[in-house]
Write a structure and sequence with these properties.
53% helix; 4 domains; six-stranded antiparallel sheet; Beta-Lactamase; 473 residues
Length: 473
């Protein structure tokens, strides 16, 4: 309103100046005549501009109110959808459908939501896009095409038509415009919302403000769901820890009793016909005892006398063993960080963690590939466990077949495995998780189908005393 009044005042001033020039030009004399003609001519000259000005202002006000009402409706519907317990992809698709359905912008009912993962945008939801386009835009690197440029720059990109910035093209792609908007959280781009517009659609500041508000709500929903998923996973693992600890304790007592009676029976009748059967029972009991030991590792109940050791020394010592384990066709790349990485715990258990991951990497690369192992220092914070510390980081990665998001969320659960029956117990990664947690650390996994898998293990660094430092060296 203030801007409109200023523009109206300028229009009247311009009209007054024009009248003064006209009166002088036509040599109009007489004060009474000037007093009569001046306001009449000024209003006559200003009437048209004022009409257009106030009409445009009214149209802008009405459009602003429309955008506000649409935004309010979209916000309510988005929050309602976010409260439902549905898979993330389905939630994002519902959100996208809501935006396309209720948006007052002249769009082509086509769009997508892409989320940033390891510097790459991955399409999580789309509507109206062809199969070829979905495949072409399934993973968009930073800086490529409009969406990748938004990820790199963090700013809105608009296009009236398909231009040279569209690096991705598919057969029979029609001309169209684009709004590509960053989805930001704490100043960081976590995703991109892309909406198709009809060709020639003009850029509009009101539309951009509307879409910025939509993206802000979208960011809060995505981050909220991400934190909720992390918390649920943390609580589930804690519940499984307690369950495994109780099972291991009770099962170990039962196995101890079975083993004891077998030993007594063998002592009393070493040459009886049942001696072979008793030995088989005893061997089975020993296997069960080994299993309970693994469950204790998973549940963080098993303990050894901790010592301070250099994580880099463990990695160097295992290098040759991993080379033999990997076999032909798999290339091993080793990168050791500078200086020692002193951590406190069990060297044997950390070796077991690395060997478990190396074995899984080998299974994920049946046709060969590259296995990478790297160490470094890093300061980290974790949302789920709410802890921050200076860490010795071990990164274990392969170029294998990778995992889907559904598999990735379950890999640390005991007895979960994607291997064929008889090829794995499903305890390797759960034990790895338990050992890392027992050492006060954290483990994170990054993976996507066809793009390999990376595990990052973070163990708290410790300061060794003089004697302990000498032992490490």
């Amino acid at each position: 309103m203030k801007t409109t009044l200023i523009k109206a005042a300028l229009a009247l001033a311009a009209a007054e100046l024009a009248v003064m020039l006209l009166l002088r030009l036509f040599n109009v004399s007489g004060r009474a005549l000037q007093v009569l003609l001046d306001p009449a001519l000024m209003l006559l000259l200003a009437l048209g501009p004022l009409y257009l000005l106030f009409r445009g202002g009214e149209k802008t006000r009405l459009r602003h109110e429309l955008l506000e009402s649409k935004l309010q409706r979209i916000i309510e519907d988005l929050w309602s959808a976010s409260l439902q317990t549905i898979p993330r992809e389905e939630l994002l698709r519902r959100i996208l459908d809501e935006i396309l359905t209720n948006s007052p912008i002249t769009i082509d009912r086509k769009g997508a939501i892409l989320l940033a993962e390891d510097g790459v945008l991955r399409m999580k939801a789309s509507i109206g896009l062809s199969e070829e386009l979905r495949k072409a835009c399934a993973a968009v690197p930073s800086g490529r095409c409009l969406c990748g440029r938004v990820l790199a720059a963090g700013e809105i990109i608009f296009a009236e038509h398909v231009d040279e910035r569209h690096d991705t093209s598919v057969p029979d792609m029609r001309d169209h415009g684009h709004y590509c908007l960053p989805i930001k959280s704490a100043g960081k781009v976590i995703g991109v919302l892309t909406l198709y517009t009809v060709p020639g659609h003009k850029r509009d500041p009101l539309e951009e403000n509307f879409l910025r508000s939509v993206c802000a709500i979208l960011a809060r929903i995505i981050e909220g769901k991400r934190m909720e998923s992390t918390l649920l996973q943390f609580q589930k693992m804690e519940a499984l820890n307690r369950f495994a600890a109780g099972i291991a304790h009770d099962f170990n007592n039962i196995l101890g009793t079975i083993r004891g009676f077998c030993d007594v029976a063998l002592l009393e009748s070493p040459d009886s016909g049942c001696a072979g059967t008793l030995k088989e029972i005893a061997a089975a009991a020993d296997k069960g005892t080994a299993l309970t030991r693994q469950l204790k590792l998973f549940s963080r109940q098993a303990s050894e006398k901790p010592e301070i050791f250099d994580l880099n020394d463990i990695v160097r010592r295992l290098q040759e063993m991993m080379r033999r384990l990997s076999g032909a066709g798999i290339k091993i790349e080793l990168s050791i960080g500078p200086g020692p990485l002193p951590v406190k715990g069990s060297p044997g258990q950390i070796e077991q963690v690395l060997m478990n991951l190396a074995s899984n990497a080998k299974d994920a690369m049946p046709e060969g590939g590259t296995f990478r192992l790297a160490t470094a220092r890093q300061d980290v914070c974790f949302t789920g466990s709410k802890q921050c510390f200076s860490a010795a980081r071990v990164t274990v990665s392969d170029t294998g077949e990778g995992m889907t998001e559904e598999v990735r969320e379950k890999i640390f659960e005991p007895f979960f495995t994607t291997k064929p029956e008889g090829k794995g117990s499903g305890l390797g990664l759960s034990i790895t998780h338990g050992i890392v947690k027992q050492h006060g650390g954290e483990i994170a996994v990054r993976s996507a189908p066809g793009e390999g898998t990376t595990f990052d293990i973070f163990l708290p660094l410790t300061e060794a005393s003089t004697g302990e430092q000498a032992k490490m060296i």
